[in-house]
Amino acid sequence: MDYFECEVANKAKLPPTRFGAVAQIVGNTPNKATLTAWTAPGFFSGDPEFTTLTRRVFNLSEFIQEADLVEVVIEADEVLVTDEDTWEANKTPIDEVHSMSGKVQIVTTNTVVSGVIDPQFNTVHRVERSLVKASVAEADPAFPAALLAGAGTFPSPVTDRWTTYEEVRHGWYIKTVEGMSNTDLAVRGTTRSRYWPAVMEDFNVDFVNGLREDGTEYIAKVTVDCNYKEAYNGQSRADVTRSWTRTVPASVAPSVILTDQFSYSGIFFNWNSKECLHPQVDFQESTGTHPDFARYYVRDMSFAATDQQDWPAYQVYEEDPQPYKGGWLKEIVKVYKPVDTIRSS
């Protein structure tokens, strides 16, 4: 700028200035004062232009590696001109016709890398965060959030990338990319409630013979002995295996324990079994020379065993899959059989 200085009467008032000149009056003596003025190149030809000052700064924030601080004097009512690289801009009044325009122009951004504990698996996931201009963010197929297949630049065992965008100020987003892995697995011990049906432990039929006066025998009474392991419906030891997949998990067939109930209508006795697991049960009866029967009768019945004849070592079922970071959480529950309890009946 050009600099001018002259003496003026004390208490003289500065006339209105126009854009391109900055002036002030400073009183020196009781009678005189000093007028100082700065004029921008082109002021006298009617086309003033102030010099733009640009200063490069580094590490302005964790996301901004390099930026230019740009300052220039502009007209007080001039609208700030910004572009998509402008991080922030401000205008500070100097006098009635001048303002100082300040802008931060981002040159280079920095990707912030961190390790985050995934609470579902207690494993460390690599997370990358970066500052992205709106024109780039909003054109991304993953905007505002999506799961992208493939590891990209992430190291193994990453198989997918969970990408989200968050607007931090007008024109700028924070892009967060978390590496996901379909090998993530968490097994925890706990308890689960499960039904375990009654089990027929053993079944025995005995015929008690009577003796006639002539010395011949006949069936006088039948005794039936059956031992059951009681049904149990309550908490048992369990393992829950949690995994993650990008697609909806396929259904898992649960363990099914099919019980059976049967009734026997015999010659000398009837028998009703409770709903239970049981081995094959055979009934064989004959009247022989029993005095109450006119003829010789035979009753031969067999009831097939259930598919399982005792509690399996464990039962397996799947919890409802839950959406998680663009994919799905899958939980397989293995419930171990409780301690056996046996009751006779």
Brief summary:
The chain has 345 residues and is an all-beta fold. The protein has one helix at 134-137, and strands at residues 2-9, 21-27, 32-39, 53-58, 64-75, 86-93, 98-109, 112-118, 123-133, 145-149, 160-169, 172-180, 185-196, 199-211, 217-229, 232-245, 263-265, 270-272, 281-286, 298-303, 314-318, 322-324, 327-336, 342-344.
Describe this structure in words.
The chain is mainly β. The protein folds into 4 domains: 2-39, no CATH class; 53-109; 112-182, no CATH class; 187-344, no CATH class. The protein has 1 helix and 24 strands. The strands form 7 sheets. A 5-stranded antiparallel sheet has the order 8-9-12-11-10.
Total number of β-strand segments? Answer: 24
Largest sheet: 5 strands, antiparallel
Determine the N-to-C terminus distance. 112 Å
- What is the alpha-carbon Rg in Å? 46 Å
User: How much β-strand is present in the residues?
Assistant: over 45%
Enumerate how many helices there are, as a single number. Answer: 1
Strand order of the largest sheet: 8-9-12-11-10
Structural class: mainly beta
